[in-house]
Structure formats: structure tokens, C-alpha cells
């Protein structure tokens, strides 16, 4: 049973080149209160990303954006929602200069959980196939389409090889939720539990605790210099706090106290 934010990364890798720095440091990811405004902003960004990716002239991206946003808003989702998509894209803004192909990396963010059922294990593969089909229809170069699909499949493990800067950027952006404030992390943990509402508390607690231990045992959670500098320490504090709650609780699983400042 997977109960991690995406999937646990259990392999140590060589640190990324610390001399590569992002072109800009954006504000932390935030969620627009108005879903209509958020979705309009996402549609604008999707169109811009496709232009950067070299989509075929005359192809209308709006139907594709509509279908993707509809998928991200499916009712079975509690964490893997449109807000998660917006947050991953926002986190990628801090890592643009690290990725060798920012356009492919952003497209992979759009597609990485486009197919998502919490009770199934083939979500990433189905999402990658969807990306291959949609980007081919949109006229994106075959090499960039293949790279986008590869990155989507990489989110099964979040284990980019040394030098895979696209994979490092996407995986760090995807896992940046672990480094949120105590309140934000508590909301994330509660959303993950809600997605796995069909799993009994005891089984969820055991599975989730195992994932958290795997993450905490890693030499590094984040592979980019920015992620290592800004997200590593708070992520480890959050993970340790949640693990302590899971391993001491005897009743229904509750998220960590959002008011805990540590």
C-alpha cells in the first residue's frame, strides 16, 4: 500500500552541481482562493508552456487544458488536486535554471498525476501514455514528448539518476509539499489520509510510517541545490513529527498539530 505524497525515494544519489542557481526566487507556492481565477491562470500557463515546447502552429490548446483541469478536479482526489498541480508548477519556478529542458519538465508536471486513482498502482504509466498521446496531437517534437513521458514515469520512484537535471527539478518540486509550514503540512497529511479513506486506520498507520522512515533514512530528500538549501531541513522536521504521531497514536490517525512551531 502506498501512502506517501507520491512515492518514496529510497536510493541515494550524487548531489547536483551547486553552482547552478535558479534564475529567480519566487514567492512560496500559494493557493488562489478563487478556483476560477486559479484555473484561468493555469490555462494561460499551459498555453505558454506549449508555445515554449514548440507546439504545432494553429493547434488550439484549450480543449487539452480543459480536459487536464477536469481530470485534476475529479471527486476522488483529496491531495492530488488542482491545488497540487498549481503548487508543483509554482515550485518549479524556483528550479527553472536547473532543468535542462524546462518546457518538458513543466509539461511533465501537468501530466504527472493526470490519471489518479488512490486504489490503483498504474497511475503514472497511464498518465505517461496520456502525455504521449496528447503531446503528439499537439504537435510537440517527438523527443520532447518522449522526455515528458519519461519524467512522468520517474515520479513512480522520485529517483532521478545523477545528472538528470530535468528529473531532479520535477521530483524536488513534487516533494516540496513536505517542507511546508506545520499548518500546511498538517493539511497535506490530512488530505493524504482522506484519499486513503478506504484503508483501515491500523493498516494506514503502518504503511504510512514505513514510508516516512524510508524518507527519513535517505541522505538527501532533495537533489537540486535550491531544494537542499530551502526544503531539506523543514521537510525532515515535518516527517519526523508525523512519524512520532503515527507511532504513538492508538485511535484514528490524526495529522500533526498545525500550531507546533518546531
Write the layout of secondary structure elements.
Elements: H1 35-53, H2 62-72, H3 82-93, H4 102-111, H5 123-137, H6 142-154, H7 165-175, H8 182-195, H9 201-217, H10 225-230, H11 232-248
Q: What would you say this structure looks like, in words?
A:
The chain has 262 residues and is mainly alpha-helical. Helices cover 55% and strands 0% of the residues. It has eleven helices and no strands. α4 (102-111) crosses α7. It is globular and about 60 Å long. The two termini are 29 Å apart. Residues 3-30 and 254-262 have low confidence and may be disordered.
Record field, number of beta strands: 0
Number of helices: 11
Q: What distance separates the N and C termini?
A: 29 Å
What is the chain-wise order of helices and strands? HHHHHHHHHHH
Largest sheet: none
Q: Which terms would index this structure?
A:
11 helices; disordered N terminus; globular; 262 residues; mainly alpha
Condensed summary:
This protein is an all-alpha fold and 262 residues long. 55% of the residues lie in helices and 0% in strands.
Amino acid at each position: 500500500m502506498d501512502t506517501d505524497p507520491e512515492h518514496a525515494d529510497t536510493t541515494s544519489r550524487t548531489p547536483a552541481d551547486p553552482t547552478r542557481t535558479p534564475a529567480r526566487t519566487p514567492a512560496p507556492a500559494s493557493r488562489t482562493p478563487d478556483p476560477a481565477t486559479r484555473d484561468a491562470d493555469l490555462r494561460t500557463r499551459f498555453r505558454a508552456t506549449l508555445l515554449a515546447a514548440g507546439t504545432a502552429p494553429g493547434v488550439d490548446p484549450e480543449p487539452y487544458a480543459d480536459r487536464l483541469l477536469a481530470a485534476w478536479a475529479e471527486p476522488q482526489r483529496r491531495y492530488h488536486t488542482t491545488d497540487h498541480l498549481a503548487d508543483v508548477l509554482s515550485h518549479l519556478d524556483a528550479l527553472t535554471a536547473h532543468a535542462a529542458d524546462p518546457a518538458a519538465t513543466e509539461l511533465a508536471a501537468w501530466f504527472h498525476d493526470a490519471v489518479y486513482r488512490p486504489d490503483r498502482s498504474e497511475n503514472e504509466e497511464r498518465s505517461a501514455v496520456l502525455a504521449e498521446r496528447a503531446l503528439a496531437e499537439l504537435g510537440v517534437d517527438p523527443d520532447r514528448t518522449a522526455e515528458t513521458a519519461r519524467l512522468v514515469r520517474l515520479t513512480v520512484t522520485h529517483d532521478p539518476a545523477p545528472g538528470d537535471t530535468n528529473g531532479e527539478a520535477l521530483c524536488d518540486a513534487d516533494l516540496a509539499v513536505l517542507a511546508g509550514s506545520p499548518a500546511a503540512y498538517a493539511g497535506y497529511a490530512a488530505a493524504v489520509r482522506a484519499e486513503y479513506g478506504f484503508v483501515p486506520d491500523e493498516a494506514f498507520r503502518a504503511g504510512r510510517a514505513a514510508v516516512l522512515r524510508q524518507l527519513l533514512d535517505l541522505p538527501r530528500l532533495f537533489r537540486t541545490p535550491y531544494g537542499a538549501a530551502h526544503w531539506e531541513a523543514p521537510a525532515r522536521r515535518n516527517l519526523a513529527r508525523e512519524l512520532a504521531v503515527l507511532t504513538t497514536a492508538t485511535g484514528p490517525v490524526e495529522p500533526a498539530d498545525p500550531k507546533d512551531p518546531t
